[in-house]
Design a protein that fits this description.
single chain, mainly beta, four-stranded antiparallel beta sheet, three-stranded antiparallel beta sheet, about 0% helix, globular
């Protein structure tokens, strides 16, 4: 049930990943050391799920910008969020 949907590099060269984890799916963001693959930190956004929101892409600048979708009233709407590094 785990999905990696997008990857980007932060200003320090670390990998920022977004996607969903678990069953049912909950949106996650994680930071990984590219030298050894170690997890630096991860954040779960359980208030957007489960199975209710999906992070699909990421861009990193002075913050983490994610795009995705959220289920609303039998359909879905696009979402975009700015998250702290």
């Amino acid at each position: 049930a785990d999905e990696v949907e997008g990857l980007a590099l932060d200003p320090e060269g670390y990998v920022i990943g977004v996607g969903m984890m678990g069953n049912p799916s909950i949106p996650w963001v994680w930071k990984i050391d590219p030298e050894n693959g170690n997890l630096i930190w991860s954040r779960v956004y359980s208030d957007l799920g489960p199975d209710d929101a999906f992070f699909r892409g990421v861009v990193v600048d002075d913050a983490i910008f994610v795009v995705g979708e959220r289920r609303v009233a039998g359909g879905s709407v696009g979402i975009a969020a700015r998250l702290p590094l």
